[in-house]
Amino acid sequence: MKQVNVVGAGLAGLAAAITLAEQGVGCRLISAQPSERAQSVLAEGGINAALDTMGEHDTPAEHFADTMRGGCFLEAESAVRNLTDHAPEVVRWLVRLGAPLMAKDGQLILRNFGGQKKKRTAYAKASTGKIIMTALIDEARKYEAQGLIRRYPHHELTGITVEDGELKSIAVRDLFTQEMRAFTGRTILCTGGLNGFFEGMTTGTTPNTGNAAAIAFSAGVAFANLEMIQYHPTTMGITGKRMLVSEAARGEGGRLFIMRDGKPWYFMEEKYPELGNLMPRDVISREMVFVKREKGCEGEVCLDMRALDESVWQHKLSDLRAEIIAYQHIDPKTDPVPVSPGIHFFMGGVRVDDRHETNVKGLFAAGEAACKYHGANRLGGNSMLGATFGGRVAASSAAQSAGPSEETVLTEAPPEPSRPECRAELREILLQGLGIVRTASEMQKAEEALSLICDAEQLTPIDRSRAMLGLAMLQSALARQESRGAHYREDFPERDEAFRKLTLATCENGAIRLRFVSADAGEVD
């Protein structure tokens, strides 16, 4: 039987596994965490599709235009058009699998979301990720019972072997027994973003280490747009991470303000009268930095939700209100909520072609692990869409050339784990250079500090790989001498169309090679 390996069991991984099973192709579903604890479960706001159920005459063409504009035109038009054209089909597929998205009279209810002029975000209160993941988990279990999906829970990726530009095998470790295995065959990486590179500053799950990406980078897999890191404007600090205050709160009428000369200043509405508090996330996050510098402004930026209707709290944001009360001891119904930007999404990642194949033949990637649809800044609601659609495309592509796969128990000792002190040092260096507002001097200091770490002999192999990928992030940011989307440089504050290209980074013979390539290229160099 044909067999494909899927590493990661979140939204992209489950979509890939189910798609393979639908086509009669076997799947090993390999993950360090169970699907119930995947990053995708935490997604709150919704999933975009131009279903036009709200009488606004929305179309996939308008969804395409908003996505390209929000991403600052840093992605291939063909890829984005493919995504937005298939979005209604993706959402209908999820509903068929049992995802109970909000509906009335048989029609999905859509809400406003940032960077979009039409209501096109389907949702389930502020727990959309949990609802969709539950439906996919149930569907996957059906195929597990048939033997088409075989789970390898509590297993992590430890190695990728490439020979002559083609994937030979992957190595995984059982986190319970420490037993090592190797799998041959086509493989799809659905391992999420680089949350573990910024411990404590992201809305992502704390077990999402970023090690899989580091291993792939060291194996010669090409990465793109690593400098593009999305800061979500409305987050709050909790133990070990940032808590997301969903964009849905602003979609339903929440307003950002800061105290200026003793009075609330609703700055987004004054500066951006058309979209106001629903401007793209990069714009709002920057404005939150800038207004705190302005004369007369004091205190924290707050999200004001006091004017929301009772029906909104009861039927749309009841779960969000409960979370804020539980974690912050603030009732958003009666009091403004202090918020600040936190790292939320990585637009950059493994570069894939239109089939979701990497520069390594036989290795594919999807979801937040991949760089494909979001350009310089992801629109809210496009994350779950990109992960679901990308997982299905990667699975169909891998299935075309898949064959039998071998499993081998390895006798070698497990690799040394990453050291906490190395992770902490990497985190501080990257935060120094890759903030919301960037300068050459800060990035250069960070690059110099990280270069010294990369040369240190005492690093474990995984820490060296992490440091090299972190260095590629900093070098990508330094090379892009413009401001575009999530990448804002005070020394180059304007967008420069000469840089309407992807930053492509590869690790070759232990050194980083960085170059700019056309976003419209259909293949990965």
Outline the structure in words.
Helices cover 33% and strands 23% of the residues. It contains 14 helices and 26 strands. A five-stranded parallel beta sheet has the order 8-2-1-12-22. A hairpin with a 2-residue loop joins strand 4 and strand 5. The two termini are 31 Å apart. The mean pLDDT is 95.
CATH class category name of the domain at 233-341: Alpha Beta
Total strands: the figure is 26
**Helix- and strand-based class?**
alpha+beta
CATH architecture of the domain at 233-341: Alpha-Beta Complex
Keywords:
single chain; 525 residues; alpha+beta; Flavocytochrome C3, Chain A, domain 1; 5-stranded parallel sheet; 5-stranded mixed sheet; globular
Structure summarized in a few sentences:
With 525 residues, this protein is an alpha+beta fold. It has helices at residues 11-22, 60-70, 77-96, 128-146, 211-218, 248-251, 267-271, 281-291, 310-315, 318-328, 382-401, 420-433, 440-454, 461-479, and strands at 3-7, 26-30, 47-48, 103-104, 107-108, 110-111, 121-122, 149-152, 155-163, 166-174, 180-183, 187-189, 223-224, 229-238, 241-244, 255-260, 263-265, 297-304, 337-338, 340-346, 349-351, 363-365, 370-371, 407-410, 501-508, 511-518.
